[in-house]
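Design request, tokens follow.
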């Protein structure tokens, strides 16, 4: 059943992606959660790992908070799997809204639709794309809280489809890297609910992962390993991060030693970094905190999923001013939503080291909007390059060791090059990696 969800999602994405627009470069999108003006900013990540503002779209404005504004308070944002559609939630009072943007090849965004969900819907706090056509939105105006599904039909129709009961305290979603699962928190029952994602607007409830006490808030999934994490805010010890392992049937079980201490005060959001290792996968959990406004790193044990605070941190400043944390490759992004005390607001960029250290890359970058908050990141799909066995974008003598491993010991290749495609060794494209590929590989190396 697990693989059925993943296969359906993968097929849908592969069929759709070549036909649709997306940013040709790495990109970062930030929602600006102003009460009087909501907006979303789009950035391009330059070759020097700097953020370059491409454009900003104002989603709504009002003279005061007594005026309804479905586009104010741009809160959470989510990017569709194909990179073409960006959605923003607006918990803005009497007219809660959702805005859909289209992403162009240069990374710029253009608003395509904005709808008011209903009067006093009680959110939407979070949203997440289940596929390129279906969007899950938190709905808090009912008891129990519900996962609401909407269908997106270009150029501008977002239509309600159905809801699923989720319990109480629903505020955050996460979708697994393969698209097979949607995770939704229930902070009243201290658990994370699991749904199988058919990617056609339907979900299958698959139970939940139970916390031993601290309630889960924002959820983070590991991109390549079966681990799920959640920040726990002020609950428990006040520095708790939950950690679950996911079985093949989709179920979650608490990892030994969990919850783990981040070392900070009131973990509010978290995100798993990109690979910062060279010969083996090394990733860190980036944890943002509410009370002490710090972004901290926690090491991830690949074998057990266990977390350990590294002690490395960045202090944004005043309590409550850290908006969100995210990561792309070995870059870490942190938003500062208030200019109080230090006069700074915007998004910071760091490079994470193999030991979990954070090195700031330049000064804070302005988003041009009010109260920067949620972050969404995009990296263009890697185009297969036959013979490129160490995935550095070229075919050279550095690929020989990987080619030999792919030919003689595929398991060892996968272990040594976890983020590379072994099929790049199928030089003659006969769907089999064999001695028949050697001559072609040598020709690629020598230019023959």
């Amino acid at each position: 059943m697990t693989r059925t969800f993943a296969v359906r999602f993968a097929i849908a994405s592969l069929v759709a992606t070549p036909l649709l627009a997306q940013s040709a470069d790495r990109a970062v999108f930030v929602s600006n959660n102003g009460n009087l003006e909501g907006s979303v900013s789009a950035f391009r990540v330059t070759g020097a790992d700097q953020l370059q503002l491409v454009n900003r779209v104002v989603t709504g404005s009002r003279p005061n908070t007594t005026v309804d504004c479905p586009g104010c308070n741009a809160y959470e944002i989510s990017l569709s799997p194909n990179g073409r559609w960006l959605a923003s939630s607006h918990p803005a009072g009497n007219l809660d809204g959702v805005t859909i943007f289209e992403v162009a090849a240069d990374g710029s965004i253009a608003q395509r639709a904005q709808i008011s969900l209903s009067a006093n819907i009680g959110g939407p706090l979070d949203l997440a794309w289940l596929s390129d056509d279906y969007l899950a939105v938190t709905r808090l105006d009912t008891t129990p809280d519900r996962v609401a599904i909407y269908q997106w039909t270009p150029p501008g129709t977002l239509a309600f489809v159905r809801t699923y009961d989720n319990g109480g305290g629903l505020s955050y979603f996460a979708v697994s890297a393969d698209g097979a699962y949607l995770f939704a928190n229930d902070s009243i029952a201290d658990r994370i609910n699991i749904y199988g994602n058919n990617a056609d607007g339907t979900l299958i409830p698959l139970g939940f992962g139970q916390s031993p006490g601290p309630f889960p808030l924002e959820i983070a999934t590991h991109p390549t390993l079966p681990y799920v994490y959640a920040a726990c805010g002020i609950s428990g010890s006040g520095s708790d991060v939950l950690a679950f392992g996911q079985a093949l049937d989709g179920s979650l079980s608490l990892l030994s030693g969990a919850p783990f201490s981040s070392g900070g005060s009131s973990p509010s959001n978290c995100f798993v970094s990109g690979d910062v290792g060279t010969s083996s996968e090394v990733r860190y959990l980036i944890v943002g905190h509410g009370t002490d406004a710090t972004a901290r790193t926690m090491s991830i044990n690949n074998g057990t999923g266990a977390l350990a605070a590294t002690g490395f941190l960045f202090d944004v400043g005043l309590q409550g001013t850290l908006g969100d944390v995210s990561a792309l490759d070995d870059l870490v992004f942190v938003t500062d939503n208030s200019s109080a005390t230090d006069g700074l607001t915007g998004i910071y960029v760091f490079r994470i080291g193999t030991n979990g250290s954070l090195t700031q890359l330049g000064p804070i970058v302005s988003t041009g909007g009010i109260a920067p908050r949620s972050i969404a990141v995009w990296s263009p799909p890697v185009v297969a390059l036959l013979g490129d066995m160490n995935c550095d974008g070229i075919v050279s003598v550095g690929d020989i060791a990987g080619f030999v491993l792919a030919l003689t010991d595929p398991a060892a290749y996968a272990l040594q090059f976890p983020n590379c495609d072994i099929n790049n060794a199928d030089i003659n494209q006969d769907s089999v990696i064999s001695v028949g590929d050697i001559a072609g590989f040598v020709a690629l190396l020598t230019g023959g």
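Comment from the thread starter after seeing the answer: thanks! Residues 153 and 299 are 41 Å apart (CA to CA).
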